[in-house]
Give the backbone structure.
Amino acid sequence: MTAPLLKVRDLNVRIPTPGGVLHAVRGVNFDLMPGEMLGLVGESGSGKSVTLRSLIRLHRPPIQMTGTVEYGGKNLLDSSESKLRDVRGGRISMIFQEPMSALNPVLTVGEQIGENLREHKGLRGKAAQDRAAELLDLTGIPSPRARLADYPHQFSGGMRQRAMIAIALASEPQLLLADEPTTALDVTIQDQILRLLLRLREEMHMSVILVTHDLGVVAQTCDRVAVMYGGRLVETAGVNDLFHAPKHAYTLGLMRSLPGAGEHRRPLQPIPGGPPDLRSLPPGCPFAPRCEYVTDDCRVGEPPLLEVAPGRFSACVHYSELPALKSTPEEVGV
Amino acid sequence: MHTSYVLRRLLQIIPLFLAVMVLVFTLVHLIPGDPVSTLLGDRATPDIVARANKELGLDKPLLVQFGLFVNQLLHGNLGESINLKIPVLRLIGERLPVTLFLTVYAAVLGVAMAVPLAMLAAVRRNTWVDAVIRAVFQVGLSLPVFYVALQLLTLLGARLGWFPIGGYGENFGEHLFHLFLPALTLGLNLAAILVRTLRNSIIEVLTAEYVDFARAKGLRGSVIMTRHVLRNALIATVTLLGLNIGALIGGAVITETVFAIPGVGRLMVDAIFGRDYPVIQGLTLMFALIVSLVFLATDLIHARLDPRAELS
């Protein structure tokens, strides 16, 4: 069996706030295989984006990150700033949710790609220009050479996201971290960007971690899914397994709250209540207060993430009682 | 690049000029006293006064005098100084370079102090470093320019003897040396204004997502600070700098008097005391022109720094 590209162990992120320390990520563990596309899903405040950002130690003090993020035999969370910078943007790149605010408004797109090429590929001048145009072309931007001199505000929303992807891919990374890359886009553009990511993953042999709150996006693109709730992973599974038979009551709730398509149209079943307050969690399962399967066992201690079937992990006391679903990724995806 | 825009802005100076002309002509003649009695003193006999007034054209009705003034101006002539008997244009030509030198010098010193200190204060925000920088400049901002000038003059000039207490010098090096204290005085005042704004914009930019994206690209801290943070933070500051350079040129009146610098500020003070109408009028028009040009330059620089800005 091949070794994982990235090993995350006991990742914790603590954010000091005026109202107390917010324990946003609480002991997250997962492996990422080379070439794998992993979906990290959860609702707002579940800690998915915070987790993603801590993989390249992007949080700044006073935010605290502990645990290990092992890449290439080193723990990125305690390597020196200069070693980290080689990995950051070099071997591991990241794209953000809102390209309008993530691209620098006063630098041309060409300059912003050029920075990466200089830092990680040692390319300058004409060679950098050529490569930058190639990258824009690769991400499907028409007349790429002319557009290098344009500023971000001269691009449309979808084009901006393509440009950001081009910047991130300039260093030919092994791993792309994508933080809700399609949330700010309308549906048709969203589809194009997802297809682009899938194509680029094939062509560049990258792994991708895709953070999203949209199960449809996951169904369309990912190999494996990790579901987050209250700062913890509550279930991980192959994408087909997850959609056929969720093994966590929260995942089941998420599936039921999705609108079905075509003949399978049925009333939506929203999950009652709201996400937990990470400053004061009750003992036991963080989902218990909103869960229809809840029993006293759920409130005793926080259930650990255990392997419940080959390749499937769940932190649900009642995983075996959950019904299978008829939904398939294809159905959810469209 | 923006040729038509620049042309339009230059044409806008014409109505401004007309307004300034009317205003300054009226104000000058409203000041009690007149050049002849100032020049000749109390003991001049009425017919000497009358003859002098006739010679200078001051006996004509005001409207006629204004007409003559405008006519002169249209021929590119600002008239002749009553007290010095030198064409006003030549006076300006001699004195203006001194004032411009002082202004640019002060602006350079001010920016050189403001940018690093604002960066330091922003990066170390809410620490004692930040508190000290802000407190010092807050005090600097509330002290009047003439007071700071006198203190610097007494300490660094008279007591320690490090710098000359006045004059302008003969060559570039001497100008730098002679004008150091006045430029420092004005520069400190400017820096105090800039540090506040720049610190706040740097702090704001530091939280922008493109700074996180730049960090995620693996760029080194110094590159992020200069290319990404400072370039964006300077946009707001440039406008403020432009506005204050206008004020700086006006402020030359005080500084040049305190430091005995032969610039247009001193000339203006002398002209007002001597009721030298043509000089006052000529200098005011010149100030208006320079300030308009500085504002135009500011807008052009702003447009260069911020590609989103539309010149219209």
About this structure: The CA atoms of residues 190 and 244 of chain B lie 7 Å apart.
